[in-house]
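Please, structure for the following, as tokens.
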Amino acid sequence: MRELDRQLASVMRYQARQLVMKDKIKSTLTAIDVEKILGKPRYSNDIYKIANMPGVAVGLAWTYVGGDILFIETSLSDGKGELKLTGNLGNVMKESASTALTYLQSNAKKYKLDSILFEKKNIHIHVPEGAVPKDGPSAGVTMMSAIASALTGKRIKPFLAMTGEITLRGQVLPVGGIKEKVLAARRAGLKEIILCWQNEKDVQEIDPEFIKGIKFHYVKTMSQVLELALVG
């Protein structure tokens, strides 16, 4: 009898919990409910409107927890042509910045850049979230675009992100982590992405439903990047 009583008591407790859960769980969820469950939104489209000024470009990064976006900011100041880098950047990322600057210096006439700027202006490149270490070659195209934007006074096309390694010969090379980077761009509300043409196969492996509404530009050269990125 005692065993039977315990079983009946267990059933009654289970039924009571079910009745409580039915009272608490809603049949529909509102935006406020979702925010309570998942937390505050991580990305906001407003940040692109605020940051849409010459010298600012949006890059895509891979992290051990998935893809992420990063802003690369470039500012000019009077000086002797020095390059300053901040934002907890690794050696490879610093080399990408130097490569981007050297390429633009050697092709100043091609892009109608005033060569005097390289001699009388210091160039400061900053990547926000300085507490987070950043490294890798994939920010090369973004850094080059940000520098060119600052030098020309032309803004980067809004809602555009990019990723790719660069060379002194003006080539754009493929990089890894494309799936994670593209999905991060999708979450952030970006509308266009510039990639190396050799990364097209990586994009094709992503479910089309996940990247609906994003326009991809596959490039081979840094000239193509600037043609797509810079607006009047």
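The chain has a mean pLDDT of 86. The chain has two domains: 2-38, 46-231.
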